[in-house]
Every structure is written in C-alpha cells, then in structure tokens.
Amino acid sequence: QVQLVESGGGLVQAGGSLRLSCTASVRIFGILTITWHRQGPRNERLFVARITYHGIRNYSDSVKGRFTISNDDRENAVYLQMNSLKPEETAVYYCQASARTGGSYWGQGTQVTVPS
User: Fold this and answer.
1) Residue 67: DSSP 8-state
2) According to the model, what pLDDT value does residue 28 have?
3) What's the alpha-carbon Rg for the chain, to the nearest Å?
4) How far does the chain reach from its first CA to its final CA, in angstroms?
5) Buried b (16+ CB within 10 A) or exposed e, 17-32
6) Of 92, 114, 11, residue with least CA distance to 44
7) 13, 16, 49, 71, 92 from 24: Cα distances, Å
8) Contacts (Cβ under 8 Å, ≥6 apart) of 4
9) Do 40 and 47 touch, CB atoms closer than 8 A?
C-alpha cells in the first residue's frame, strides 16, 4: 500500500507561482511513476505532468514551459513547480502513483485557486 500526501496549494494571483509537493510513504525513484492531475469546475480530471520511475518527464501541452516536475529521492517526494498561473488552472491538484509491480494510488488533493 502506498500513501500519498499533497501539499502546497493555495490562492495565488494570475501570473504567480506555486510549488506543489507529493510525498510518498515509500521510495519513489525506480519504483513509482508519479502523475499530477487536476480537476476543475467541469469535474474532468486532466493530466498535467508525469515523472516515470526512471526519471522521464512528460507534460500536457497547456503547461509546457511553465510547469516543472521534479523529484527528491531523499524525501520520497515529487514536486510540481507552477509558474505563470492562469485563472483557468483553478482546480484540485491530485498526485497519483503507479507502481512497477502494479497498483494505482491517489492522494487527497490540494486546492489551487487563481482568481480572475
């Protein structure tokens, strides 16, 4: 069983930055692929960014160049640095882990609000 805890959400003005954290109860690198998703007012849960268990990073087209996903193996954490935030990016951001051996785990989510 993998437990995930997100943090770092909050209210930020348009154009501002936030850094989200996803801390896992187990080692991440080499074991877990971590994906950030977000769920906005339309209730669609959309892909934002991913770092695979061997360090490959992927981003949705809408965040490329503004968001950066990174990991800290000592802290069992993955971070999502979000710059130049837009009002339409107001959402609950979720961290999801997929294990190499199978299984999918979700955190409780963290709210990001960017007022228009």
Assistant:
1) E
2) 86
3) 13
4) 39
5) ebebbbbbeeebbebb
6) 92
7) 29, 27, 17, 11, 18
8) 22, 23, 24, 25, 95, 96, 97, 105, 106, 107
9) no
Compute the residue count for the chain: 116
DSSP string covering 4-65, please?
EEEE--EE--TT--EEEEEEESS--TTTEEEEEEEE-TT--EEEEEEE-TTS-EEE-TTTTT
Per-residue pLDDT for the chain (116 aa), expressed as one digit of tens each?
899 999 999 999 999 999 999 999 988 888 899 999 999 988 899 999 999 998 999 999 999 999 999 999 899 999 999 999 999 999 999 999 998 888 999 999 999 999 99
Cα(105)–Cα(2) distance, integer angstroms: 6
Residue for token pair 């949705």: 60
Cβ atoms 2, 97 nearer than 8 A: yes
Q: In terms of Cα–Cα distance, which of 32, 31, 37 is closest to 49?
A: 37
Are the C-beta atoms of 48 and 38 separated by less than 8 Å? yes
